[in-house]
């Protein structure tokens, strides 16, 4: 398990039969990081205005 | 007056307009308010996907004017190719975030399955679009990808109509067919979102009931 | 009071009548475009994009003349991968199948390629050749298909003989090869000069927009596959999603690439189920992917799958700002 450099100078992470290039690690990590951030980072408050009261009867 | 109503009912044009006016009035097509639950960055991933698609199309149009081999010999050409390349990477990154986000929101609820499926169709067609693009780079990447991908495509029988080693055909697929399909699918996707509205949270009824109860009790108290 | 579950269903189905907030989608869209544009320009300036020159037949013939020669003989003998490919190129095989489902065979030959004629003879005919090569072409064309096959197969076997030449055409013993050696060396000379690159795709034609013949011929040798292996791009190296160098590749093909790593499509067995699955690996992988895709498409209708977001309540995090409203009022 670990990073390897191919004879042509490309970088890969290898673990048994699993192999992923450093470029793909970056993009896949970006997907995961963005997903997590999109879920946990609070949406800006300044967009929030007083909720407009429901027009319909509340009964 | 009654003539007019009659006409609207029986003509195809009238029927389509009536349906559009009913399902997609202007305030639903371009609303400036959203339900109170539309507070999450997940919603932004979809818009970013479309912005990346705009980047792909924009850089693609420049490459179109300059032809398929310009970017090998011109530094600015190579830069435009890079814009195209990174727009595609971002497009897929944002699309997958959007897809996963909407999975966790179970965004197909309330008859929104058409939106869900059209999104997945957009993803599937984008894979084909990407593949055809990689095949027309006119460099060693294209040679390798054509050599490899042909077996998978041929094995399904699709190779008879989709010959990845045929530069001319891939060119037309990539700059006309796939962008056309993707644009239409994305348009339908967005229109369905606007018609149905953004999917309410899984526990929306609970929240609304609590708010209503609170309002009722404060009224009763006053 | 209405049942909560029924009320939830109603809320989902009807247009929202609850509290609203300001939301400017046009502004959001324009800001998104600006952000993406900045990201794309930044990434392009920082990392550029891959563009390694296309391989050529000249390069192949110069770097690996023996391999080029041996491959040419295979094309003449009809033993190369392309010659035995089957549909859509020729009928010399059935192609891949999942059990009785033989899509490749059913759809049939749509882009006929005869390797001996298309890769070797026609290119030779469409360029001025030395007299000795011209004569060899004439001898070949006058011979019956059976005679052609005998000559070329004899030479092919002699080159591939592990106890003899073992891939080196210069070590082949004398034999009944007819004009085959001259045809192969003629094509090698043509390739080395660079002439084959221009002629192969469409001999005698002005326009050419189809590179299938070039891709197939080049793929039959060791030059192009060697390039792929060296660059970590081969199918069983997760190559489907890889790119030259350190650039990200088509990482969205990961679900495809994953199945190409599975032992059942990389088996060395010569018989049995795993041998069948390996021989038909592409179509099995694509069948698996099709099923997975369909499951994704149909999530809204599949009980269990569609309930996962309720069971693993990530939505409580996503909508926490909204859900807080209930607490604030109680």
Protein described:
The complex is a heterotrimer of chains A (about 60), B (about 220) and C (about 325). Chain A has about 60 residues and is an alpha+beta fold. Chain A contains one helix and three strands. Chain A has one helix spanning about 20-40; strands at about 1-5, 10-15, 20. In chain A, a hairpin with a 2-residue loop joins strand 2 (about 10-15) and strand 3 (about 20). Residues about 50-59 of chain A have low confidence and may be disordered. Helices cover about 75% and strands about 0% of the residues of chain B. Chain C has two domains: about 55-230, no CATH class; about 260-330, no CATH class. The radius of gyration of chain C is 29 Å and the shape is elongated. The two termini of chain C are about 20 Å apart. Chains in contact: A-B, A-C, B-C. The interface of A and C includes residues 12, 19, 24, 53 and 55 of A. Strand 1 of chain B pairs antiparallel with strand 1 (about 20) of chain C, so a sheet runs across the interface.
What order do the helices and strands of chain A follow?
Answer: EEEH
Number of strands of chain A: 3
Total strands of chain C: 1
β-strand amount of chain C: under 5%
How many helix segments of chain A? Answer: 1
Structural class of chain C: mainly alpha
User: Oligomer, anyone?
Assistant: heterotrimer
Query: Quick one: biggest sheet of chain C?
Result: none
Order of adjacent strands in the largest pleated sheet of chain A: 1-2-3
Low-confidence stretches of chain A: 51-59
User: Taking all residues together, what is the mean pLDDT of chain C?
Assistant: 93
Of all chain pairs, the largest interface belongs to: B-C, 104 and 111 residues
- Helical amount of chain C: 55-70%
């Amino acid at each position: 398990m670990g990073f390897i450099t191919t004879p042509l100078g490309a970088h890969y992470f290898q673990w048994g039969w699993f192999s992923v290039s450093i470029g793909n690690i970056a993009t896949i990590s970006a997907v995961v990081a963005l997903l997590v951030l999109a879920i946990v980072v609070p949406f800006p408050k300044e967009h929030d205005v007083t909720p407009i009261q429901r027009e319909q009867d509340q009964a | 007056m009654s003539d007019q109503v009659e006409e609207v009912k029986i003509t195809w044009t009238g029927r389509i307009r009536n349906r559009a006016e009913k399902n997609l009035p202007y305030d639903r097509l371009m609303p400036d308010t959203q339900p109170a639950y539309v507070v999450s960055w997940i919603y932004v991933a979809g818009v970013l996907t479309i912005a990346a698609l705009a980047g792909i199309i924009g850089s693609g149009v420049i490459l179109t004017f300059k032809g398929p081999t310009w970017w090998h010999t011109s530094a600015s050409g190579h830069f435009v190719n890079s814009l195209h390349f990174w727009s595609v990477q971002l497009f897929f990154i944002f699309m997958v975030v959007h897809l996963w986000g909407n999975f966790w929101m179970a965004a197909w609820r309330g008859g929104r399955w058409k939106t869900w499926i059209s999104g997945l169709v957009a993803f599937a067609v984008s894979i084909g679009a990407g593949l055809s693009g990689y095949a027309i780079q006119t460099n060693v990447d294209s040679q390798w990808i054509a050599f490899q991908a042909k077996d998978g495509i041929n094995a399904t029988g699709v190779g008879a109509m989709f010959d990845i080693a045929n530069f001319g055909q891939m060119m037309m697929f990539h700059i006309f067919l796939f962008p056309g399909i993707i644009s239409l699918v994305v348009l339908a996707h967005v229109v369905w979102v606007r018609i149905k509205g953004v999917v309410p949270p899984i526990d929306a009824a609970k929240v609304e009931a609590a708010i209503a109860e609170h309002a009722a009790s404060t009224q009763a108290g006053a | 009071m209405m049942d909560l579950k029924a009320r939830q269903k109603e809320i989902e189905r009807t247009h929202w009548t609850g509290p609203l907030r300001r939301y400017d989608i046009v502004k959001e869209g324009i800001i998104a475009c600006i952000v993406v544009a900045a990201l794309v320009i930044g990434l392009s300036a920082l990392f550029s994009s891959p563009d390694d020159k296309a391989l050529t037949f000249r390069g192949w013939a110069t770097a690996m003349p023996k391999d080029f020669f041996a491959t040419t003989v295979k094309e003449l003998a009809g033993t190369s991968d392309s010659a035995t490919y089957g549909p859509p190129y020729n009928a010399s095989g059935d192609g891949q199948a999942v059990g009785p489902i033989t899509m490749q065979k059913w759809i049939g030959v749509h882009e006929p390629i005869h390797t001996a004629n298309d890769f070797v003879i026609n290119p030779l005919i469409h360029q001025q050749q030395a007299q000795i090569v011209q004569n060899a072409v004439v001898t070949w064309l006058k011979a019956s298909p059976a005679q052609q096959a005998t000559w070329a197969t004899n030479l092919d076997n002699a080159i591939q003989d592990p106890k003899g030449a073992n891939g080196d055409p210069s070590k082949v013993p004398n034999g009944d090869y007819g004009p085959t050696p001259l045809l192969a060396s003629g094509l090698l000379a043509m390739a080395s000069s660079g002439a084959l690159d221009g002629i192969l795709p469409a001999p005698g034609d002005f326009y050419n927009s189809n590179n299938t013949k070039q891709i197939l011929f080049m793929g039959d040798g060791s030059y192009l596959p060697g390039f792929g292996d060296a660059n970590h791009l081969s199918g069983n190296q997760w190559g489907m999603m890889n790119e030259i160098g350190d650039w990200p590749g088509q990482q969205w093909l990961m679900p495809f690439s994953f199945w190409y790593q599975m032992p059942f499509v990389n088996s060395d067995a010569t018989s049995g189920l795993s041998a069948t699955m390996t021989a038909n690996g592409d179509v099995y992988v694509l069948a698996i992917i099709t099923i997975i895709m369909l499951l994704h498409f149909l999530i809204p209708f599949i009980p269990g799958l569609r309930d996962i977001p309720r069971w693993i309540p990530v939505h409580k995090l996503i909508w926490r700002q909204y859900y807080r409203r209930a607490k604030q009022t109680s």
